[in-house]
Write a structure and sequence with these properties.
heterotrimer, A alpha+beta (481), B alpha+beta (445), C alpha/beta (428), A: alpha+beta, Uridine Diphospho-n-acetylenolpyruvylglucosamine Reductase, domain 2, Uridine Diphospho-n-acetylenolpyruvylglucosamine Reductase, domain 3, Alpha-Beta Plaits, 4 domains, 7-stranded antiparallel sheet, 16 helices, 18 strands, 34% helix, C: 428 residues, alpha/beta, Fumarate Reductase Iron-sulfur Protein, Chain B, domain 2, Glutathione S-transferase Yfyf (Class Pi), Chain A, domain 2, 4-stranded parallel sheet, 52% helix, 8% strand
Chain lengths: 481, 445, 428
C-alpha cells in the first residue's frame, strides 16, 4: 500500500491540532500492542476531538489510501485494534464525553472513548447502569465494546453489547457522517445499528453511541458453589438451566485458577476445591430468594461440597473481584498466557472440560479455566514464557485443538473477544467460502477499498482453504511482554 | 387485478430445479396468492437452500422478480409490487437442524410454523418467545423477515435478542449464513440483524437458530383501568420504575378493548395489562406493588386467550374494519403519550375513530383508524390521516402503514422516513441483491 | 527474532525482565492513571511506561529525551499498582527507571547542579534546610515569588522544586522540637517516636504540634528523636537510590529503639518510604534485619490512632467532610478506612466523592515541574470534590493539602482544607 506519510501527518495536524498527532518512532511503538499477543507498529496516531475531525481524517485517509484502525483503550484480546504496519491509528482517548443521559427513555449517548464502567458510575445515582460488563470494564471503552460486541459475566441474563445499543453515529470511509437507529428500541428499515456492532471496525468508524440504561435490580444474591471436581461443577451448569433458572451470571473457576487468584485477591475462595461456580441471581426480592434456595438445592444434588452466599455488598464485591481480575492475576505466576474464547453448547461443557484437561496433559502445559459457564463461553488460559519458542509452538497447537473441539460440537471460535487478527484463519472452519464472500461483499459495500481495519476477521485469501492455527499467522509476533 | 406472465419456457426450468409437482401455474391458485391485487406468474416450493440458490440465480439471469412466502399472513403489507414473476414458498423447509434441550437452543427450517415450533419445545418445558399474530400460519422465515413480535417482546426481548443464527440465500443466489447454534458468538458479521425486519428484500431465509427459555410455571395478568391514556401511561411509568419485572406490559385503548372483546363491559377506560410470571409469593408481591389500580386478574385459559387475542390485534382490526388504516410505530418511550395525543388529534380532524394497543414498556404502538360511522369515507381522509401522523411523529420514531384500503395504496407509502440512513441501506441491498430480485418495489427502494 | 538485543540501561539497578514481565499489558491501569486521563496518550500510561522500559531494555528505544519526558511525567502516585491484577511492582520499576535516568541521562548542567545540591546537601541536613527555608521565607514575603513564578524563571533555573515545597513557610520550625519528649495525658497507653519530616518541619510546624497534642491527649508519650533525618522519599522518587539508603540507615539508628511501640508519621509519603526500608536495604548485611524490624513499627498517624482507639473527644465536629485519599496512604500503604473511621468517630458527616483515591496531581514537586498536567489533573479532581458539596476537604498528607488549597481557589469553592489530624486536634 503506497503511503504518503509526511503529507498525511501535516494534514492530520491541520485537522486535529498540532498536539493531536504522533509520528515519532518512539511514540508510535507505544501503539503497536493491545492486550493480546500480536504487534504491529502504525505510521501515525491521531487523537480527534469531534466527529467532524474524524470525518476529515477519513476523507484524507481514503484519498491517500492509508489503512485506518480505531483504538479505544487497547484492552482487546484478539488484535482488533492492532494497526496495519505503517497505517493510521485513530485513538479515541480524547473523544470521551458522555453527551446525554435521558432518564425517561433510559438511554445515554456517549462518545466512543467513554470508559465502560464510567458510564455506570455516572448514572448510578439515578438507579441506572449499563449492563455489558467485560472484565476489562474499568478501562475498556464503549467504542471498543461496540466494535467487538463485547460480553461479560452478566450477559447471560442481559445480553451482549448489541442488545444494548439502539443507535450509532458513523463516519464512513468517504468521510460522510451517517446515523443508524436512535433512541427507540427498534425501527423500520434494515437494522444497521445491529450490523455495525461487532463489525470490528471494518465497516465504519463509530463516533457516538446511544445505549440502553437498565434499572438496578431490587435484589442480588451471589452464591459460591464449591465442588470437588470440574466435572461436578460442569454438570451443575446444565442442571441449573434445566431447573428453569436463568441466573444473571454463572461463572466457573477451576481449582488451579482459583488458587492463583485467591493469592492475589483474598476473595475467600476455598483453596482445596476442584472447581467453584459463581452464581448471581437478580430481580425481584421474592423471586431471588426462591431461586437462591433452588440453586443451592441443585448444587448440592450435583455433589457440591458447600454453597456459600455473600452476606453483603462487600462480600459480593470480593467474590467478583476475584473473577474480574482473574485473567490479569495470572501475570503473577506466568510471564505470558494465551487465552481462547471458544463457545460450546452448554450441554457440552463437561465434555469440553475433559478435553481441555487431556490437551493440557498431551502438550505438557498448564491450562487454567475461568469462564462464562452459563453461556458455554470458555476461556482456557494457557501459560507460557515467550522466551521458550518450543513451548509457544505447543501452546498454539493446544489452542487449536481446543477450538477444533468447540467447532466439532457445534460451537464457535469466539464468544466475545472478536475474530480480529488472531482467529481470522479459523473463520474458514466455521464458514464456507461463499458465506465469507457474502460478508465481504457487505464490507465492500461500505469499505470498498478495504482501508478500514484491513486484515481483520476474514482469512487471507491464500489460506482460505487451509486449516491453520494462529501459528501460521504471518502477522508480526515479536518477542516482548 | 392483473396477472403477470412469464414465458412458459421458464416454468420448465423451475420444474427442472425443484421437480414438476413443486411448480404451480394454476391461474386460480396464483390469483389467490395475489399481493395487493398483483398475482404471481408462477409459484415454486423448493426443498432446499441449493434449490433456492438455483432459482435465484436463474431469476438473476433473467431479471425475474421473486417474492419469498411463508404462511402468507403479512403479504399484503408493503407497497404494491409492479409485477411478481415467482412466488417462492418455504413450506418444504421444515427440518429440525438441531435441538438441544440442555443448551436451550433450537435450529429449525424457515417453513416451520411458530405454533409447530412452540409445541415442539413445550414438551420439554421450554418456551419460544416469538408471539406474532396467527402463529398457526406464521412461519419462522416470515417471522424473521417481517421482524414481527407480540406482547412478549417486553419481557423476552425481540428476535434480534434471541435469534442466534441464520442460513439464507442472498438475492443474487449465494448461500450464506450468520451466527451459529450457540448462545454467544461474535464470529463474523451479524447477519441475523440484517435479515430480521428486512421484509424479504435481502435474502431468503432457509433456517434459523434460537435461544429458548424455560417455560414459566405460573403466570397471572393484572388489569388496571384508567379514565385517560395519560393516567394509564403514568401507571406504566410507575411500573417501569418499580422493581417489578413483568413479561408483558400492554396498553389497550377503550376502542381496542371493544375490538378484542366485543361487548366487553370494561371498554370504558384505558387499560394497562401486566403479565407476570413467578410463584404465588412473587405474584402476591405484584399484587401489593400494583395496589388498588388493579380491577381484574386473569389466569389459566382465560389469560391465555386474552393474550392470544391481543397478539391477533392486527388481523382482527383489519377484519372488523376492512376500510381502515393499521399503523405500527416504534418510538422512544417518553414519546408514547404525545404520539397518542397526536393520533387522537389527527383522527378527530379527519373524523376517524381509533383503537390502539402497544408494548408501552418498549414503546411500540399498533393503531387502527377507521372513518366514524357518520363521516365521509374518502381517499383524501385516509391520505390526510397518514400524512398528518407522519408529520407529527417525533425524531427517532418510525411509522409503517400495515394496512389501508386497496384504492389508497398507491397514494400512501407503506414506509415513511426512518432513523437509519437510507443510502447505507441501499448499499446493503446492492451488496446482497444487486438486481433487485427480491420483493421488488415493495420495501424501501 | 534477531540476535540478542543490547539493553540501553546500564548495569546496576534497572528495570528487569523479572519485574516487567509481570505486566501482561491488559490495560486495566489506564483509566486509573491521572496522566493518561489528562493526556490520553499511551506513553503517559502505566502500561506504556512499563513498555518503554522494556523497549529501552531491549535496545529498541534510547534512554533519551522521549523516555525521560514520559518517566518524568509520572506522578508516582501508584494508583496503577492498586488497579493492577498482575502484581506489577510499578513503584519499584519507576524508581529503577529514574535511577537509570539520573545515572545515564545528561540533564542540563544547571539543573544537575541544583538538583544535586538540593537532594544531596539541603534535604538531608535539617540545619541547612532551616537556613534555606529562611531564605525562601524572605523570597516569599518580598514579592519576588510571584514575579519569578510568573516568568517561569524558577523552572529555567531548575529550582522549581524548592519553590513548590515552600508555599507557606511557618515562622516557627519544628526543628526546635527535636530531642524533646511530650508526656502522655492521663493513663499512658503507648510510647512512640515521631518523624517530624523535613518539609513538614518547615512548612507545617503547626501540624506537627497538632499531631503531638492529639497523641498525648490520647495517652501516648511522644518522643521526637534528636538525630532523625529526612526519610528519603524525595530522593527515592527522584532516582537517588543510594542517598535514600543513607538516610534510611540514619533513621533506623535514630528511631529503632525497643522502648518505642511505633514510629509514627503524619506524612503519607514518609510513611510509605519508611515501610520500604526493608526492601531498600535487603542486600545490606548490616542493616537488612534491623530494617525489617523498623518497618514493622512504622505507622501512619491515622493507622496508629485507629489501632489504639481514640478517647472520647471534647466536642463533636458537625461538618460535611469529604476525605481524599493521599496516594501514598491508599495506594502505597493500603490505608483507606482508618482516616474515615477517625473522622466519623469525632462526629463528621463523611461524604464520598467519586475517585476519592485518585491522585490530586501534587506528587511532591510535580505540580511545579509539570504544572500544566498537574492543573489538568487537579481540575478533574476538583470537579468530583465539588459534586459532593463539602464544607471541609480532609486529607492526610501535606503536599495534597497544598494542592487542594490551590484547587479550591481555582474552582472558586468555599471549603477549607485540613489534615485529618488537625480536625482531631480541634475536637480535643
Amino acid at each position: 500500500m503506497p503511503v504518503n506519510l509526511p503529507g498525511l501527518v501535516e494534514h492530520l495536524r491541520e485537522i486535529a491540532g498540532r498536539d493531536a498527532v504522533l509520528d515519532r518512532p518512539e511514540d508510535l511503538m507505544l501503539y503497536e500492542y493491545d492486550a493480546g499477543i500480536r504487534k504491529s507498529t502504525p505510521g501515525a496516531v491521531v487523537f480527534p476531538q469531534n466527529t467532524e475531525q474524524v470525518s476529515q481524517i477519513m476523507r484524507l485517509a481514503t484519498a491517500l489510501n492509508v489503512a485506518v484502525v480505531a483504538r479505544g483503550a487497547g484492552t482487546g484480546l484478539s488484535g482488533g485494534s492492532i494497526p496495519q504496519a505503517g497505517g493510521l491509528v485513530i485513538a479515541f482517548s480524547r473523544m470521551n464525553r458522555i453527551l446525554e443521559v435521558d432518564v425517561e427513555n433510559q438511554r445515554a449517548t456517549v462518545r466512543p472513548g467513554v470508559v465502560n464502567l464510567q458510564l455506570s458510575e455516572h448514572v448510578s445515582h439515578l438507579g441506572l447502569y449499563f449492563a455489558p460488563d467485560p472484565s476489562s470494564q474499568k478501562a475498556c471503552t464503549i467504542g471498543g465494546n461496540v466494535a467487538e460486541n463485547s460480553g461479560g459475566p452478566h450477559t447471560l441474563m442481559h445480553g451482549v453489547t448489541v442488545n444494548h445499543v439502539t443507535g450509532v453515529e458513523v463516519v464512513m470511509p468517504s468521510g460522510e457522517i451517517v446515523h443508524f437507529g436512535g433512541k427507540a428500541a427498534e425501527s423500520y428499515g434494515y437494522d444497521l445499528t445491529g450490523f455495525m456492532v461487532g463489525s470490528e471496525g471494518t465497516v465504519g468508524i463509530v463516533t457516538a453511541i446511544t445505549v440502553k440504561l437498565l434499572r438496578k435490580p431490587e435484589k442480588i444474591a451471589t452464591l459460591l458453589g464449591v465442588f470437588e471436581s470440574v466435572d461436578d461443577a460442569a454438570l451443575t451448569v446444565s442442571a441449573i438451566t434445566a431447573a428453569g433458572i436463568t441466573p444473571a451470571a454463572l461463572e466457573m473457576l477451576d481449582g488451579w485458577t482459583l488458587r492463583t487468584v485467591e493469592a492475589f485477591c483474598h476473595a475467600g475462595y476455598p483453596l482445596d476445591a476442584g472447581a467453584v461456580l459463581l452464581i448471581e441471581l437478580e430481580g425481584l426480592r421474592e423471586a431471588v430468594e426462591e431461586q437462591a434456595i433452588a440453586v443451592r438445592e441443585v448444587c448440592l444434588s450435583q455433589k457440591a461440597r458447600e454453597v456459600r452466599r455473600a452476606k453483603d455488598d462487600d462480600e459480593r464485591a470480593l467474590l467478583w473481584k476475584g473473577r474480574k481480575m482473574a485473567f490479569a492475576a495470572l501475570g503473577r505466576v506466568t510471564p505470558s498466557y494465551y487465552t481462547q474464547d471458544g463457545v460450546v453448547p452448554r450441554s457440552q461443557i463437561p465434555a469440553v472440560m475433559r478435553h481441555i484437561g487431556n490437551v493440557a496433559k498431551k502438550y505438557d502445559l498448564t491450562i487454567g479455566n475461568i469462564f462464562h459457564a452459563g453461556d458455554g463461553n470458555l476461556h482456557p488460559l494457557i501459560l507460557f514464557d515467550m522466551r521458550n519458542a518450543e513451548q509457544f509452538e505447543r501452546v498454539l497447537s493446544a489452542s487449536s485443538e481446543i477450538l477444533e473441539f468447540c467447532i466439532q460440537c457445534g460451537g464457535s471460535i469466539t464468544g466475545e473477544h472478536g475474530v480480529g487478527l488472531e482467529k481470522r484463519d479459523l473463520m474458514s472452519r466455521l464458514f464456507t467460502e461463499e458465506d465469507l464472500d457474502v460478508m465481504i461483499s457487505l464490507r465492500n459495500a461500505f469499505n470498498g477499498r478495504d482501508i478500514l481495519n484491513p486484515q481483520k476477521i476474514f482469512p487471507t485469501p491464500r489460506m482460505c482453504r487451509e486449516i491453520t492455527g494462529p501459528s501460521q499467522n504471518p502477522v508480526l509476533m515479536q518477542e516482548g511482554l | 387485478m392483473s396477472t403477470a406472465t412469464i414465458p412458459t419456457r421458464f416454468a420448465a426450468d423451475f420444474r427442472a430445479i425443484c421437480g414438476a409437482e413443486h411448480v404451480s401455474e394454476d391461474p386460480a391458485q396464483l390469483q389467490a396468492w395475489n399481493i395487493l391485487g398483483v398475482a404471481p406468474a408462477l409459484a415454486v416450493t423448493p426443498a432446499s437452500a441449493d434449490e433456492i440458490a438455483g432459482i435465484l440465480r436463474f431469476a438473476n439471469e433473467h431479471g425475474l422478480s421473486v417474492v419469498p412466502a411463508g404462511g402468507f399472513t403479512q403479504q399484503q403489507v408493503g407497497n404494491p409490487p409492479p409485477q411478481i414473476d415467482v412466488v417462492l414458498f418455504t413450506a418444504r423447509l421444515t427440518a429440525v437442524e438441531h435441538y438441544d434441550v440442555g443448551d436451550l437452543t433450537v435450529g429449525i427450517g424457515a417453513g416451520c410454523t411458530v405454533a409447530q415450533l412452540s409445541a415442539m419445545v413445550a414438551k420439554d418445558g421450554l418456551f419460544f418467545a416469538g408471539d406474532p399474530a396467527q402463529p398457526e400460519r406464521s412461519t419462522i422465515g416470515g417471522l424473521l423477515a417481517t421482524g414481527l413480535y407480540g406482547p412478549l417482546r417486553h419481557g423476552y426481548g425481540g428476535l434480534r435478542d434471541y435469534c442466534i443464527g441464520v442460513r439464507f440465500v442472498t438475492g443474487d443466489g449465494r448461500k450464506a449464513k450468520g451466527g451459529g447454534r450457540v448462545v454467544k458468538n461474535v464470529a463474523g458479521y451479524d447477519m441475523m440483524k440484517l435479515l430480521i425486519g428486512s421484509q424479504g428484500t435481502l435474502g431468503i431465509i432457509t433456517s434459523a437458530s434460537f435461544k429458548l427459555f424455560p417455560a414459566p410455571r405460573q403466570t397471572r395478568t393484572f388489569v388496571a383501568v384508567f379514565p385517560s391514556a395519560a393516567e394509564a401511561l403514568q401507571f406504566r411509568s410507575q411500573v417501569l420504575r418499580s422493581p417489578l419485572d413483568p413479561i408483558c406490559l400492554e396498553l389497550v385503548s377503550p376502542q381496542a378493548h371493544e375490538l378484542l372483546a366485543p361487548g366487553s363491559p370494561a371498554a370504558a377506560g384505558w387499560s394497562i395489562c401486566l403479565r407476570a410470571a413467578g410463584s404465588e409469593t412473587v405474584l402476591a408481591r405484584y399484587r401489593t406493588e400494583l395496589g388498588t389500580a388493579v380491577v381484574r386478574e386473569m389466569e389459566g385459559a382465560n389469560e391465555q386467550g386474552f393474550w392470544r387475542t391481543l397478539s391477533d390485534f392486527s388481523p382482527l382490526a383489519a377484519e372488523r374494519h376492512p376500510r381502515s388504516l393499521l399503523i405500527s410505530m416504534t418510538l422512544p418511550v417518553r414519546d408514547v403519550q404525545s404520539v397518542l395525543n397526536e393520533v387522537s388529534t389527527v383522527a378527530e380532524s379527519n373524523h376517524f375513530l381509533f383503537a390502539a394497543i402497544g408494548r408501552v414498556g418498549i414503546a411500540h404502538l399498533l393503531v387502527s383508524l377507521w372513518p366514524a360511522p357518520d363521516a365521509e369515507d374518502s381517499l383524501v381522509s385516509f391520505v390526510d390521516t397518514v400524512s398528518g401522523l407522519r408529520n407529527r411523529v417525533p425524531r427517532d420514531a418510525s411509522l409503517a402503514v400495515l394496512h389501508c384500503p386497496s384504492e389508497t395504496r398507491h397514494h400512501i407509502s407503506a414506509w415513511g422516513p426512518m432513523p437509519t440512513d437510507l443510502e447505507s441501506m441501499r448499499a446493503v441491498k446492492m451488496a446482497l441483491d444487486p438486481k433487485d430480485i427480491l420483493n421488488r418495489g415493495r420495501f424501501l427502494f | 527474532m534477531a540476535e540478542k538485543p543490547v539493553s540501553n540501561f546500564s548495569s546496576g539497578e534497572k528495570p528487569t525482565w523479572d519485574l516487567y514481565s509481570k505486566c501482561v499489558h491488559c490495560g486495566l491501569c489506564l483509566d486509573q492513571c491521572p496522566t493518561y486521563r489528562a493526556l490520553g496518550t499511551e506513553m503517559d500510561s502505566p502500561r506504556g511506561r512499563i513498555y518503554q522500559m522494556v523497549l529501552v531494555d531491549q535496545g529498541r528505544l534510547a534512554l533519551a529525551d522521549s523516555f525521560v519526558t514520559h518517566i518524568d511525567r509520572c506522578l508516582g502516585c501508584l494508583n496503577c499498582q492498586t488497579a493492577c491484577p498482575s502484581g506489577v511492582p510499578y513503584g519499584s520499576l519507576l524508581e529503577r527507571a529514574r535511577s537509570q535516568i539520573e545515572e545515564n541521562y545528561p540533564r542540563s548542567w544547571l539543573q544537575r547542579k541544583v538538583r544535586s545540591h538540593f537532594y544531596g546537601t539541603v534535604l538531608p541536613s535539617f540545619g541547612k534546610l532551616a537556613r534555606h527555608a529562611k531564605l525562601v521565607r524572605f523570597y516569599q514575603r518580598s514579592g519576588l515569588q510571584g514575579l519569578a513564578r510568573g516568568s517561569g524563571l524558577l523552572k529555567l533555573l531548575g529550582v522549581a522544586e524548592l519553590d513548590a515545597l515552600s508555599p507557606r513557610i511557618e515562622s516557627d520550625f519544628s526543628f526546635a522540637d527535636l530531642g524533646r519528649v511530650y508526656p502522655a495525658e492521663g493513663a499512658q497507653r503507648g510510647r512512640v517516636a515521631l518523624l517530624i519530616g523535613c518539609i513538614s518541619s518547615v512548612a507545617f510546624a503547626e501540624l506537627n504540634r497538632a499531631t503531638i497534642r492529639v497523641l498525648t491527649r490520647n495517652g501516648i508519650e511522644v518522643h521526637v528523636p534528636q538525630s532523625q533525618s529526612c526519610c528519603g522519599a524525595l530522593h527515592l522518587h527522584a532516582g537517588y537510590i543510594e542517598q535514600s539508603r543513607t538516610l534510611a540507615r540514619h533513621n533506623i539508628d535514630a528511631m529503632l529503639k525497643p522502648e518505642f511501640d511505633a514510629i509514627v508519621t503524619n506524612a503519607a509519603g514518609c510513611g510509605s518510604t519508611m515501610k520500604e526500608y526493608a526492601a531498600l536495604l535487603e542486600h545490606d548485611p548490616q542493616y537488612a534485619k534491623r530494617a525489617q524490624e523498623f518497618v514493622v513499627k512504622v505507622r501512619d498517624i491515622s493507622e496508629y490512632l485507629a489501632q489504639v482507639g481514640l478517647v472520647e473527644p471534647a466536642h463533636k465536629l458537625k461538618a460535611r467532610v469529604t476525605y481524599q485519599d493521599p496516594c501514598h496512604l491508599a495506594h502505597a500503604q493500603g490505608i483507606r478506612s482508618a482516616p474515615r473511621q477517625l473522622l466519623k468517630f469525632i462526629g463528621a458527616e463523611v461524604v464520598e466523592s467519586p475517585r476519592a483515591d485518585s491522585c490530586c496531581g501534587s506528587a511532591g514537586v510535580y505540580n511545579v515541574t509539570q504544572n500544566e498536567i498537574s492543573m489538568k489533573i487537579l481540575d478533574e479532581k476538583m470537579g468530583y470534590i465539588a459534586s459532593v458539596e463539602p464544607e471541609i476537604v480532609a486529607t492526610a498528607n501535606v503536599g495534597c493539602m497544598l494542592q487542594y488549597a490551590a484547587g479550591i481557589k481555582r474552582k472558586g469553592m468555599n471549603a477549607r482544607v485540613v489534615h485529618v489530624v488537625e480536625l482531631l486536634d480541634e475536637a480535643y
